[in-house]
Task: inverse folding
C-alpha cells in the first residue's frame, strides 16, 4: 500500500449508478469516488459489473439512473474524451502498424495537436521501453510489450484520469512489475488511476484504496487496513508445524487432518505466541516451524462476497 | 471411438447453422441460379430468347415467308418495327417498319445484339443452291458473339423449315462454298467497323465484368475490418476517443472506396499495358464509372459487415451474395442469354449497372451524359447502403 488519499478532492464521482440489461442488473446503485492522484483498485468476481462501470464512466454505457461526475460536475462527452484515458483489457492496437505508428494514430485520435505528436510519441516510446522497437510492427512483439504499448496509446493525451481494465492480464511477473512501475510514474505526475484486476496481491501492494463490487453493488471500499479491520479484523493465524501428530486436542487450536499442522488465531502475536509454543511442547510435540499469516484481501474478499474472485 | 467422433461431428453440424447453410443450402442455391441462367426452364421461367431485328428490304413473299419462319422460332424475339420519335420529347408515335439505318443504330448502340437484313432482290436468287445466291446480311454487335452465333443458327433452321415447306429440292453436290450450301447464306457485318472487331474491346468487357465482381469481394473484405476491430476492441477504443460512429464509418467507406478505385485502375492499366485496352481515350468515362462503382461497392461491403456478427459469418454470407449477384448481374455470363425473368432480376444487382456503364464507355463509346442512369443508380445505391449501415451500426454505439 502506498500513501493514503488524504484530503485531496475527488476527480471522479460515481453516484448511485444503475444499469440493467433486461432483467439483469449490471450496476445496482454503485457509488464511489476516485481521489486526485490515487490508485484505486476495483475488485469483483466475473460478471460483478466492473467493465460496465468503466464503460459508464467513459460514456459508452448510458446509465438508467445515477450520475457520473468529473471534477465536481456532471460529466459531458467533451470533458470525458479530454480528461479520461482508457486502456482496455484487450490488446486494442493495430498489429500491422509499428509501435511508433500506433502511437501517432492514437495520439491524433485523442486530439493531440500535430505539432505535439513527435514529442508525445518519443515520451511514450521511452516510457514503455520500446524505443528500440519503434520501427517494428506490433505483431512481432511479446505479450508484455504489447500490453505496455496498449497502455501508452491510452495516455498520450495526458489525461488526468486513467481507467485500466485488467492491465496485467496474461503477462509474466516481470512485465507486470514493469507495467506497475509505469503506472507509478503516471501517478507521481498527478494522474488518478482506476484499475480493475483479478490479482489480489497486486491490488494489495499497488493500490492506495480498494473498492469491491459484487452483483453491481459496491459492497466495500477503503484502504486494505480499513477493509481488514471492518471485516476479518486484525487477527493473525499462527501455524505450527510439529514432528508428530498431536495426541490430545488443545483448546483454541485447530489441527490439520494429519495432526501435524496446528493453527491458532491470535490478536497479539508477540504476547500470545510463547504460550502456544509452550502448549504444543507440553502435548509432547517438538515444533519444527512457525508461520504467522496475516489476514489479507483474499480473506476480506471471501468474507464480503462469500466466494473466490474468479468464481 | 469412430462412432464417438461421428457423434461429435453430428452434434457440431446440428448446432452450427452456418455450416448447415454452407453444406446444404448454398449448393442448392447456386445450382438453382445457374440452372435458371443457362437452363432457363426451371421454376416456371421462360427460356432465354435472343432479341433480333429484321429489315425486309426485299418485300417479297419469300422474305415474308422467312420472317414468318423466324417468328416461329421460340428462342428468338423478332422485331420488325420501331416507334417513331416525336420532336420535343413527346410520347412516341405509331411504329413504322425498321429500315437499315435504324437497325444499324440499334445494334451499334447495344439495344439489340443482332439485326438481319434481307436485301432487295434476295428472293430472286433463292431458287437454287449455288454461288449465285444472295446472302442475308447480319449486323452484329461483336460484344455479343454468342447472340450472333445463336441467331445465325436459328436463321438456318428457319430457312430449312421454309425450304421443306416449299419443297425446294436441296443438294449440296454442286456447292463449292459451305456458306452457299446452307439454307440461308449469310454475311456478317460488325456494325462499328473494323475497330469494333478489335479484341481490345472484348478485353474491356471482361475487365469490367471481373472488376465489378472483385470490387464487391474487396469491399466486403474491407468492411470486415469493422468486425476485426470489434473483436480486437480497437473499435471500442476509437469510439472512446470521441470519434463517433458516423465518422468511423465515413473513414472506412472512404478508404474502401479509394482502394476499389485503385484496384480497378490497376486492373485496367494492366489491360492497357498487356492487352492494349484503349484506356487513354476513355479516361473520363472510366473515371466516372470507377468512382461510382467503387462508392457503391464500398457501401455494400460495409452494409454486409454491419449486418453480420462475426468475420466467419460475413465470409459465408458475402461469398453467397456476391457470387449470386455476379451470376445474375452479368459478371459471369452475358445477361442476354438469360431468361427474361433473370434479365429483369439482374436490374436489381450492382454488377449489372456497373457493367452496363463500363460497356457504354468502352464498347459503345457513348457520350458521358449517357452514363446518367448508371451513375444515378450507383450513387443512389451508395446512399441507401450507407444509411442502412449507419442504422445497423447503432449496436456498436452506447448502450
Result:
Amino acid at each position: 500500500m502506498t500513501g493514503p488519499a488524504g484530503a485531496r478532492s475527488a476527480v471522479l464521482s460515481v453516484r448511485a449508478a444503475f444499469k440493467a440489461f433486461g432483467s439483469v442488473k449490471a450496476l445496482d446503485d454503485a457509488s464511489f469516488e476516485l481521489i486526485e492522484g490515487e490508485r484505486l483498485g476495483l475488485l469483483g468476481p466475473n460478471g460483478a459489473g466492473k467493465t460496465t462501470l468503466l464503460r459508464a464512466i467513459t460514456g459508452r454505457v448510458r446509465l438508467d439512473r445515477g450520475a457520473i461526475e468529473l471534477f465536481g460536475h456532471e460529466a459531458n462527452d467533451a470533458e470525458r474524451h479530454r480528461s479520461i484515458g482508457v486502456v482496455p483489457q484487450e490488446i486494442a492496437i493495430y498489429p500491422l502498424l509499428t509501435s511508433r505508428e500506433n502511437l501517432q494514430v492514437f495520439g491524433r485520435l485523442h486530439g493531440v495537436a500535430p505539432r505535439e505528436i513527435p514529442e508525445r510519441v518519443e515520451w511514450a516510446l521511452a516510457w514503455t521501453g520500446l524505443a528500440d522497437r519503434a520501427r517494428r510492427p506490433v505483431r512481432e512483439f511479446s505479450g508484455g510489450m504489447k500490453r505496455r504499448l496498449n497502455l501508452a496509446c491510452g495516455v498520450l493525451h495526458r489525461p488526468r484520469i486513467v481507467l485500466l481494465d485488467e492491465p496485467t492480464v496474461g503477462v509474466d511477473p516481470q512485465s507486470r512489475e514493469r507495467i506497475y512501475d509505469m503506472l507509478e510514474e503516471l501517478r507521481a505526475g498527478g494522474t488518478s488511476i482506476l484499475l480493475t484486476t483479478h490479482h489480489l496481491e497486486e491490488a494489495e501492494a499497488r493500490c492506495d484504496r480498494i473498492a469491491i463490487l459484487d452483483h453491481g453493488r459496491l459492497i466495500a471500499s477503503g484502504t486494505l487496513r480499513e477493509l481488514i479491520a471492518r471485516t476479518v479484523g486484525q487477527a493473525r493465524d499462527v501455524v505450527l508445524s510439529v514432528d508428530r501428530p498431536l495426541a490430545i486436542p488443545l483448546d483454541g487450536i485447530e489441527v490439520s487432518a494429519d495432526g501435524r499442522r496446528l493453527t491458532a488465531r491470535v490478536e497479539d502475536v508477540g504476547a500470545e505466541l510463547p504460550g502456544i509454543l509452550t502448549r504444543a511442547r507440553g502435548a509432547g510435540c517438538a515444533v519444527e516451524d512457525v508461520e504467522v499469516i496475516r489476514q489479507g484481501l483474499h480473506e476480506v474478499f471471501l468474507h464480503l462476497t462469500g466466494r473466490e474472485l474468479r468464481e | 471411438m469412430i462412432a464417438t467422433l461421428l457423434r461429435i461431428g453430428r452434434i457440431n453440424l446440428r448446432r452450427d447453422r452456418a455450416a448447415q447453410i454452407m453444406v446444404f443450402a448454398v449448393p442448392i442455391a447456386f445450382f438453382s441460379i445457374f440452372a435458371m441462367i443457362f437452363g432457363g426452364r426451371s421454376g416456371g421461367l421462360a427460356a432465354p430468347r435472343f432479341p433480333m431485328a429484321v429489315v425486309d428490304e426485299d418485300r417479297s413473299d419469300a422474305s415474308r415467308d422467312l420472317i414468318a419462319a423466324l417468328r416461329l422460332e421460340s428462342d428468338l424475339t423478332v422485331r420488325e418495327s420501331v416507334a417513331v420519335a416525336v420532336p420535343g420529347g413527346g410520347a412516341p408515335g405509331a411504329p413504322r417498319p425498321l429500315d437499315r439505318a435504324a437497325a444499324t443504330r440499334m445494334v451499334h448502340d447495344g439495344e439489340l445484339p443482332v439485326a438481319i437484313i434481307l436485301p432487295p432482290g434476295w428472293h430472286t436468287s433463292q431458287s437454287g443452291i449455288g454461288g449465285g445466291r444472295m446472302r442475308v446480311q447480319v449486323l452484329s454487335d461483336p460484344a455479343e458473339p454468342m447472340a450472333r452465333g445463336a441467331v445465325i443458327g436459328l436463321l438456318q433452321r428457319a430457312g430449312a423449315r421454309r425450304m421443306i415447306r416449299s419443297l425446294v429440292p436441296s443438294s449440296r453436290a454442286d456447292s463449292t462454298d459451305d456458306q452457299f450450301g446452307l439454307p440461308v447464306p449469310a454475311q456478317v457485318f460488325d456494325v462499328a467497323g473494323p475497330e469494333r472487331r478489335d479484341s481490345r474491346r472484348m478485353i474491356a468487357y471482361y475487365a469490367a465484368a471481373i472488376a465489378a465482381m472483385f470490387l464487391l469481394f474487396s469491399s466486403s473484405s474491407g468492411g470486415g475490418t469493422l468486425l476485426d476491430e470489434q473483436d480486437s476492441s480497437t473499435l471500442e477504443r476509437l469510439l472512446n476517443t470521441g470519434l463517433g460512429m458516423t465518422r468511423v464509418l465515413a473513414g472506412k467507406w472512404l478508404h474502401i472506396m479509394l482502394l476499389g478505385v485503385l484496384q480497378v485502375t490497376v486492373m485496367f492499366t494492366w489491360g492497357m499495358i498487356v492487352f492494349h485496352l484503349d484506356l487513354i481515350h476513355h479516361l473520363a468515362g472510366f473515371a466516372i464509372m470507377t468512382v461510382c462503382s467503387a462508392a457503391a461497392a464500398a457501401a455494400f461491403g460495409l452494409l454486409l459487415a454491419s449486418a453480420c456478427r462475426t468475420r466467419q459469418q460475413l465470409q459465408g454470407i458475402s461469398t453467397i451474395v456476391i457470387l449470386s449477384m455476379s451470376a445474375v448481374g452479368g459478371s459471369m455470363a452475358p445477361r442476354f442469354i438469360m431468361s427474361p425473368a433473370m434479365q429483369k432480376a439482374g436490374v436489381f444487382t450492382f454488377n449489372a449497372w456497373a457493367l452496363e456503364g463500363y460497356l457504354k464507355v468502352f464498347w459503345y463509346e457513348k457520350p458521358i451524359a449517357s452514363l446518367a442512369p448508371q451513375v444515378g443508380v450507383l450513387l443512389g445505391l451508395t446512399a441507401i447502403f450507407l444509411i442502412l449501415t449507419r442504422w445497423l451500426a447503432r449496436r456498436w454505439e452506447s448502450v
